[in-house]
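Input.
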Amino acid sequence: MNRTPVNTGLEKVFFIYEDASDTAVQKEISLAVGNLEHDGVKAEGIAAEKFMPDPGALKLPENGGSMLFITDSPLLFKYLLKAGMPAAAWVHEKPREEPAGRGEDFAGAAYLVEEPRYIDTDSFIKIYERLKGLPWTILETKRCIVRELEEADAPDVLALYDEAALGFVESPARNADEEAGILAAYRQKVYGFFGYGTWAVIEKDSGRLIGRAGFEPFERKNGSMSFGYIFHPDFRGKGYAGEVCAALVEYGFEILGFTAVEADTDQGNTASAKLLQRLGFVPVNGRDKTDTDNEDAGNVLTFRRERPEKE
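Output.
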């Protein structure tokens, strides 16, 4: 699994400050800029007056839409938002002599940033992507990219469910329009709230959506998380599922902090059972029918893997 930040368009991060005499702010910017540039993302600290020399007169750099603006100026933030720029609010710790604090009035802010030096580059990229309405790129493997699903993926998602797959999983939407509506709601309610879910698997060479895999956004009764996957029939038996699922399970443990992951498979789906065991899952008792609405729950086998102990 490649944990190097995957950048899908962020060219530069600007840290825009009101008080040039605040040495703590300057130090914070210096450290944050160094971290970003170490990971190949340009960054710069700049005074608010250079972006807005006169009240309401916003002076933006070229390609401003490809940049992320982090500012502690409520007024500048207001105008950045009005101009449709991807901007986040920078909230400083409140000085004791100023009870109201600086940076408190950021109406409309989707993200509030504190101590940017402690924010990793991948998180800045994800803030930018979310503000731009772009799908998050979750990770890369040797042959694939895992990213969030989009409405435009609907036809390709439906193509995953051939007759063989429908013998083991629930039927998808009736048509692409219905599936697009489901994906739009999923992006808003699942990705937007939980930050994870099931994602699109894209083959790098072809750019084709070849699978869907990830975690359901709820815990089971025993505290474990549900993991699932489905791959296009043309890409089964070629190692794609093992490659991607291994990276995603590791992501669940290391990045999402899950302590245990469980996956279900039909008793007749021997290929899936073998894959899960190769991934380090071990079979547990058949799943209790009270854990699912599926009337065929008695035919479901559950496999479990716990987070490895760190040495």
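Residues 12-132 form a domain with the Rossmann fold fold (CATH 3.40.50.2300).
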